[in-house]
Amino acid sequence: MTQAKSGIEGRTDGRQDILDAAEAAFSEAGFAGASMKAISLRAEVAQGLIHYHFQTKEGLYAAVIERRAHWITTARLTLLDRIDLGIPDATAQIFEAFFRPPLGPEGGGRVFARIFALLAVGDARDQALVERLYDPSARLFIDALSSARPDVSRETCVWGYSMALGLLVGAVGRSGRTERLAQLPPDSADDTEALIARLTCHATGGFEALCEEARA
């Protein structure tokens, strides 16, 4: 049996081990199905250390979501800050900045993808986490769209953002359905750059169509 980590070294390094193990467990079994005991065994730490750092399973789940949200949001806002909102293709750059981090290293790959997808349609606990951790940056992206297209209402920009989020939720899991429907070999469409380009094209075209409709 693997010996549980303990002592000062465990309390220093164990927190990240716990978060990594919990992220994998919540991805595989959901919040209800992931037990603290299973997470402690996976992280190779004493279960008491999880309670020391996070108190409850709810606290641990929130910490998992918060860690990943911090990485995604920081990368998104770094990209967003670099965009000249006055150039013709500003909206495409805004959507690319929105899509790239969740699909890159910051997004956690397929492990966090299952959690990320469920957050958008989750229960009151998930919705509270989304409101706290993602809504502030969402408003900044909507502000950017409004600056890039000052000729349309903020409501139109909110719809553009919301539909881009729907595209992301549908794509982030990379379940293999696209390949199956296209009769392609498994993972043949698993190209991050190509996926980002397709999503950006779709979101930009849809948003521009909304803008034209709103101005008609």
Tell me what the structure shows.
The structure is a single chain. The chain is mostly helical and 216 residues long. The chain has two domains: 1-55, Homeodomain-like (Arc Repressor Mutant, subunit A, Orthogonal Bundle), CATH 1.10.10.60; 66-215, Orthogonal Bundle (Tetracycline Repressor, domain 2), CATH 1.10.357. The chain has eleven helices and no strands. Helix 1 crosses helix 4 (57-81), helix 1 (7-33) packs across helix 6 and helix 3 packs across helix 4. The radius of gyration is 20 Å and the shape is globular. It starts with 6 loop residues before the first helix and ends with a helix. The model is unreliable at 1-11 (pLDDT under 50).
The domain tally reads: 2
The fraction of residues in strands falls at under 5%
**pLDDT averaged residue by residue:** 87
What proportion of the residues is helical, as a percent range? over 70%
Overall geometry = globular
Query: How big is the Rg?
Result: 20 Å
How many strands, what sense, and barrel or not for the largest sheet? none
Unreliable residue runs? 1-11
Query: What structural class do helix, strand and pairing data support?
Result: mainly alpha
Count of alpha and pi helical runs: 11
Indicate the CATH architecture of the largest domain: Orthogonal Bundle
Cα(first) to Cα(last) distance is 69 Å
**Top-tier CATH class of the largest domain:** Mainly Alpha
- CATH-defined superfamily of the largest domain: Tetracycline Repressor, domain 2
- In total, the number of strands is 0
Instruction: Please name the CATH topology of the largest domain.
Output: Tetracycline Repressor, domain 2
Order of helices and strands: HHHHHHHHHHH
